């Protein structure tokens, strides 16, 4: 059997602190929005949104969590030995040219996977023919995302084909919302209507062994009608509302704090340019902290000359260009600043000047991209 392993290099002085208390608090609050019996799927793809997939799975495997969701077979295999009783849902659909052993392993270990074509169903059945293994297939219904979903006729054809395949069973039917995180929810509710129409037409609700799921984090919070048999929560599990909300129904607490030490203090005279491109020239004599973190570690170059960091209770500003492995921080006004002192790069407070939302605004992106950019070689420390 082919091995799917990689060696990991971890840099211990770059510290990504993960709060198990905050993570569990968020999961419990999200579950409180669901009716009794609703399954909870913890989305841990993309290295658990940058938090560390093994660390997050180990925290949550003893909680009331039914599924862990990943993007690929490789992520599923990575966490399979960590979990106790949960199932694993893979979002990447089966395709007929993937290695046959992946289908066999998926069936043996009970992974749940989307199937998006008749060729894929036939491929799975061919691999498992004559064995006692049954493959857990999910169908993604197109309701308006226009990405990976099947139209209703395609989906019905696949349901009929799956029902005739001895080694494949229909384990789930789902859809994905395109705009549930926006203030205006008309389109999301139109998607929900289309999904419910399909469930009725295909008589899915009568099939008690099929898990119906639609809600992502935003829909779990804002569209209780869409929760069905299971919710799939990603970003909100890590403490964010997809987009900031003024009056959220539940409180979420960020679970990540990213820190790095001051490696050196450098005195820069007024008028002397700083770093690549001479993009910053101080107007006064400046004390700069050299922090051993850069865009290779997941801290974006666009934060050059504008992003704040916290040094204790004081704010320092990035000066000059963020380099591949280091950056400079203006700490002239930080009292008692010292080499070895830890600097907070991404804070675990929503109202912090270097919180996830604030950095996303600076970068003109979303908090997801800020969090998932934290490199895997940064040390994850669980509290």
UniProtKB/TrEMBL annotation:
<dbReference type="InterPro" id="IPR029066">
    <property type="entry name" value="PLP-binding_barrel"/>
</dbReference>
<dbReference type="Pfam" id="PF01168">
    <property type="entry name" value="Ala_racemase_N"/>
</dbReference>
<feature type="active site" description="Proton acceptor; specific for D-alanine">
    <location>
        <position position="45"/>
    </location>
</feature>
<comment type="function">
    <text>Catalyzes the interconversion of L-alanine and D-alanine. May also act on other amino acids.</text>
</comment>
<feature type="binding site">
    <location>
        <position position="324"/>
    </location>
    <ligand>
        <name>substrate</name>
    </ligand>
</feature>
<feature type="domain" description="Alanine racemase C-terminal">
    <location>
        <begin position="255"/>
        <end position="383"/>
    </location>
</feature>
<dbReference type="InterPro" id="IPR000821">
    <property type="entry name" value="Ala_racemase"/>
</dbReference>
<dbReference type="InterPro" id="IPR001608">
    <property type="entry name" value="Ala_racemase_N"/>
</dbReference>
<keyword id="KW-0413">Isomerase</keyword>
<dbReference type="InterPro" id="IPR011079">
    <property type="entry name" value="Ala_racemase_C"/>
</dbReference>
<dbReference type="GO" id="GO:0005829">
    <property type="term" value="C:cytosol"/>
</dbReference>
<protein>
    <recommendedName>
        <fullName>Alanine racemase</fullName>
        <ecNumber>5.1.1.1</ecNumber>
    </recommendedName>
</protein>
<comment type="pathway">
    <text>Amino-acid biosynthesis; D-alanine biosynthesis; D-alanine from L-alanine: step 1/1.</text>
</comment>
<dbReference type="InterPro" id="IPR009006">
    <property type="entry name" value="Ala_racemase/Decarboxylase_C"/>
</dbReference>
<feature type="active site" description="Proton acceptor; specific for L-alanine">
    <location>
        <position position="276"/>
    </location>
</feature>
<feature type="modified residue" description="N6-(pyridoxal phosphate)lysine">
    <location>
        <position position="45"/>
    </location>
</feature>
<dbReference type="GO" id="GO:0030632">
    <property type="term" value="P:D-alanine biosynthetic process"/>
</dbReference>
<dbReference type="GO" id="GO:0008784">
    <property type="term" value="F:alanine racemase activity"/>
</dbReference>
<comment type="similarity">
    <text>Belongs to the alanine racemase family.</text>
</comment>
<dbReference type="InterPro" id="IPR020622">
    <property type="entry name" value="Ala_racemase_pyridoxalP-BS"/>
</dbReference>
<feature type="binding site">
    <location>
        <position position="147"/>
    </location>
    <ligand>
        <name>substrate</name>
    </ligand>
</feature>
<dbReference type="GO" id="GO:0030170">
    <property type="term" value="F:pyridoxal phosphate binding"/>
</dbReference>
<keyword id="KW-0663">Pyridoxal phosphate</keyword>
<dbReference type="Pfam" id="PF00842">
    <property type="entry name" value="Ala_racemase_C"/>
</dbReference>
